[in-house]
Amino acid sequence: MLAQALTLTLPNSRTRSVWILALFAAVQVADAVMTFDAVERFGFAAEGNPVLLFYMSTFGLGVTLIGAKALAIVLATALHIRAHHLTLALLTLVYVVAAMAPWAWVLGTLTR
Prior knowledge:
Number of helices: 5
Order of helices and strands: HHHHH
Largest sheet: none
Structural class: mainly alpha
Strand content: under 5%
Distance between the termini: 49 Å
């Protein structure tokens, strides 16, 4: 089933659908790196998600980020296997715009 899901193409396209999953995973890794940098610089107050903040203070920054991002990638893989490619693409776009772009701007501004 997984092998078949990896070879699917997007509707009306020759692009393999696995690239959307790969892009989602790359965005998650990049967000983890930026979050790690922000929390290292500004402390736990830099994290806006209260659930992640609780786990960071309980289990540590690295463990929490690895666990949260791994869970996100596993759930995205489930969307991919069930052929919810548009949903996965939209989630990736929303994540880039709402979570990563603001941090990239803040962290980029502070390094000048």
